[in-house]
Amino acid sequence: MTSYLRRIPGGPLTKAAVLTAVLIVLGAAGWVTAVLLRPDPACARGVEERGPEGRRECTGVTDGGFAFAENLKAVSARIKAENDRVAGEPHVSVAVMLPMAPAQPFEQEKTLHEVQGAYLAQYRANHHSNSKKPAIRLLLANPGRNHEHWRAVSEQLGAMSESREHNLRAVIGFDVSTATTQEAIAHLTRERGIPVVGGPITADDSGNSAERPDAYPGLARVVPTTTDQARALSHFNKGIDPKHTLVVEDIRTGDSYVDALKRAFAARTAGSPRAPEQYRAPEEFHEEGTTANAFDQMVDTICTSSAKVVYFAGRPVQLRQFVNELGNRGCTEKKYTVITGSGASTLSSDKLLDWDAFRKGVTLQYASVAHPDAWTSPGAPATGGSAAAYRTLADLAGSKEVGDIGEVELTDSRTITFYDAGLTAITAIRMRDDADPVVPDLGRIRDAWLRLHGMGKVEGASGWICLDNYGNPYNKAVSVVELSPDAPGRIRFVGLAWPTGRPTSADCTASRS
Hints:
The chain is α/β, with parallel strands linked by helices.
């Protein structure tokens, strides 16, 4: 080797130089090997793998060209096709932000329904609106399970709102009321100035109010708050004697939905002879934990009480565990009605729910934000919503023209809610006069929430959406539903209820008080 090196022009090499050359070659080889074997953090354009080992997932924003989950492939492909179709027209983008790949099967089904609803709103806007402008592109934004990477994805959306390529003008979504989603909404609205239309986020402190008018500047909601749901249920169930009620509540802190239920149910059960029965759900409330064990013991105590109606303040997994244990109670001669909020809408698709409980004297009644029979049943009120608005969605969902997006389910309210959220965002985006540009600025869209009442109301499939001065739907219809004991998976419509105790008047405008 030395003789070979000595023949290289420039004179003989020292041993140090030889060693250096060898190390460089070996180092380069090692670097190449490391690059080739290192996982690529990019899942697709705009989508990056994030999270610790064992919990890494693809997060970010896509135009449908990347499917975050297997069950989203068909609808993602249709979104991509529709986005490509309008690419050459004046257009804006609306993003759907929610965890796109949850671990539990019933949560995966819920997510599919929500994305389908957003797509149907996009399709209607682009094909059935008399060619109104701008055209709508739909983006799918995945902040990861439990919204763990919301900040990075929110910054990505913020950049898109400043990009002429994307023209992002609104974000819809957020299907759970937690401290994390509140942080994400606050960042999008307050820091980035992006209008947001919430999905089924019902906790009172997840929106604006007279006490906190600028908590989330630019946020609008399309579903009744948890307090409004409780008020509507109270009007609907006027005959319940507080002496025969009991509250079962999660004692975790920081869960806005549960906290709101606890406050609302405390007011509804004033006069109950017993203090609430309490349990602690896992911090990751989608997990099973050991709460079934707690409910097994709790049910024995409930059997010794005078309770006939149980108000449940908790999340769906724990609700399912409680219902299952109540169905196996020792006091089979007693019958119970369990009343809870709209979070129960995923329970019908939970494969671990024991439907036999409903044939053993247990009734589960909850406030749903929508149901197909709400406006199509005989005796539906003349104001507050319409059969025509619901059938517009139902006909579109059942038509072949929208393409293959998977089976569309309307009874669990999720598809309807995201369709209405998309419809509300698009109505505000297109609310302009002749002097306005085709692509409105973000501030003008935020101000448009102030006009969405009276004649400017949004005729949603779930009912009229008449925003008050804080972006909340005034006296929004609540569908009172029960899980049917006769057909597993079926959600039975019981009746319409209203936070004020009566249907919204024709002027669809919030009262002064």
